[in-house]
Structure formats: structure tokens, C-alpha cells
Amino acid sequence: MINQVAMTSDVTHRLSGTMMESILLYYMPRKQSISYQSMTQPMFLYIPFQAPHTPLSAPSNYTDPYTSTINDNDRLAYAGMVTCMDEAVGNIIEALKSNSDMYDNTVIIFSSDNGGDTGAGGYNWPLRGEKGSYFEGGIRAIGFVHSPLLDDDIKGTVNNELIHVSDWFPTIIEGIAGWNTNGTKTLDGVNQWNTIKSGSASGRTEILYNIDPMAVLSKGGKKWNGQSFDVKISAAIRSGDMKLITGDKGKHNVDDFTKIN
Q1: H or E stretch including 234?
Q2: Is the predicted pLDDT of residue 192 greater than 90, yes or no?
Q3: What burial class does residue 5 get, using C-beta atoms within 10 Å of its C-beta: 0-12 exposed, 13-18 middle, 19+ buried?
Q4: Nearest 5°: CA angle at 224, between 223 and 227?
Q5: Residue 122 DSSP symbol
Q6: Alpha-carbon distance 163 to 184, whole Å?
Q7: Which helix (H) or strand (E) holds 243?
């Protein structure tokens, strides 16, 4: 793995700004790693882009295409940052395609970590809530899987099955790599490869989003009859099509609660 890459003055000018430079620093070494990858060895490549994220900033060459349709400055910068990230992803795909048959035997997973921050360019409509909340706008994140290995009738479709971020580990290890998770601690995630590859039903019916004992309402709330759980605690769980949220109106920011020392 190549961990460093020389940046030309032209590139650093085009990607001025901390978040934009982070995109280059993340994807350039990985792109070069692909070109040196042996076809006889498996490869796992993880690229945690920091953008789009605050502070919002993007060079004009990435925002100019949107100036006639986006009037909000935050949304304009956000769109530019997404475009820059999209360009980086495209360059990585091209690197895979140029290295023999690597692309044909690769599974590409794109996954976000949370909903948008509506105070910093994010927009989650028609979902309720935002980043930092347990409502769908805060926790239902977009994602896609792209691969020549997917069934033909699945490509280009939308999967509405229940999948959680913790499912990626067993899905990659057991489903895609064909290995096993023997020796690990008990996993919260389940192998969802058949769901993704062929459209079969999800391997889960519930998701425990969080139980945060450090975020507790200072007043209000009460215990249910015969139950020991304190509903003043910030927590959320989904079972089937139903979701239970406790705490303060779906908030998950510890600053909104009493901090327990």
C-alpha cells in the first residue's frame, strides 16, 4: 500500500480547502495501489472520504455548474464537494477497469454514515429529522452496491430491505469473500449478500440503533409498568415497520441532555 503521494501545484490549487484536499489525499494513494495490485491476491480497499462535511468549501470549477440552479451558498458548496468526491470515485473505477480483469471481479460499496445536517447544506426531505437525531432523516443513509457480479435483473434496481451498517462486515467476509467469521465475538450484523446480489428477503427484522446512558433527560419521562428501562435515556429500536424512540424527541446530541459523570 502506498501511503504518500506527491501533489502538483495545479492539483492543490484546484482542491484548495481542508476538506477538498482530504479527498485527494485519500483517493490518490489508493488509486496507485490498484495499479500495483497482484491479480493473484485479494484486495480490500477502504476509502473514508471526509467530504461532504463542514467546513463547507469548494473551488469554483466544482460549483460553477450549479450557480444557475442553486441559490443557497451552503447548498452550492455542498454540491461542489459532492461533485469532487464523485470525480474521485470515478477515477478509482477507471483504475480498476485499467488493471486487467480486476473490475469484473470487484464489488464496490458506497455507504454514508448518517443523514444530512440541515444547518450545513444537508437536505433530507421527505424524511423527518437530521444528523444527530433518531428520526429517519438522521439515521436512514443512502448507499449503493455496484458490481458485474450482481444478478442482471438486480442491476439498476432499488433495494428496500432492512440493512444496517453493522451488516457490512459479515456480508463482505462471508458473502463476498466466501470466508467465515469463526473466532470473532458475537456479531450484531448479518450476512446480507443474497439480499444485495439476488434480491432475497433481508436477514434481519429489527435494528437497535442506540442506547446512550450518557444522554438522559433531566426531568420528565417515566418507567413503564413492570419494565426496568428508564425512558428518559436516549435510545431507539426498530422492529419490522415500527420504531420506538425514548429520550427527548429523537435527539441524540449529548449537549441536549444531562451529562452523567
Answers
A1: strand 233-239
A2: yes
A3: middle
A4: 90
A5: -
A6: 21
A7: strand 242-246
